[in-house]
Amino acid sequence: MKKIINTSKAPAPIGPYNQAVLSKDTLYISGQIPIDPATGELVQNDIKAETRQSMENLKAILAEAEMSFDNVVKSSIFLSDMNQFPQVNEVYASYFDTDTAPARETVEVANLPKFVNVEISMIAVK
């Protein structure tokens, strides 16, 4: 059985999907891009701010599922330019304890939704 997780504190999906799905104790969070949920506008032109907004969107979804970044076991980061990896990594690292950080991959892709520079998805377990 699955439970759909959605919150107004993160951007509404821009396609036929939900922000997250909880199956038993595992939460699968859809990729989050840097959309400010308060305005619906993209955060652009500063990769650190874009990453922070994406992480804040993930944080809101985790909270809606009564979880936190401590519950995250796997992250996937998609970048439009791998040269921005150091800045993205710096912001991403500020949300985790290095000793208990989740597994992760980071890949460069040709394009992302709305042509943003970063998208991050996560899997968390209660």
What is the count of helical runs?
A: 2
Side-by-side strand order of the widest sheet: 1-2-3-6-4-5
Taking all residues together, what is the mean pLDDT?
97
Strand elements, count = 6
**The number of domains:** 1
Give the second-level CATH assignment, the architecture. Answer: 2-Layer Sandwich
Share of helix, binned: 10-25%
The SSE order reads EEEHEHEE
**N-C termini distance:** 16 Å
Structural class: alpha+beta
Largest sheet: 6 strands, mixed
Q: Can you offer a commentary on this structure?
A:
The protein is an alpha+beta fold. It has two helices and six strands, in the order E-E-E-H-E-H-E-E. The chain has a six-stranded mixed β-sheet, covered by helices on one side. A hairpin with a 2-residue loop joins strand 2 and strand 3. Helix 1 runs parallel beside helix 2. The model has no long low-confidence stretch (mean pLDDT 97).
Summarize the topology:
Blueprint: E1 2-5, E2 20-23, E3 26-32, H1 47-64, E4 72-79, H2 85-93, E5 103-108, E6 118-125
Parallel strand pairs: 4-5
Antiparallel strand pairs: 1-2, 2-3, 3-6, 4-6
Helix pairs in contact: 1-2
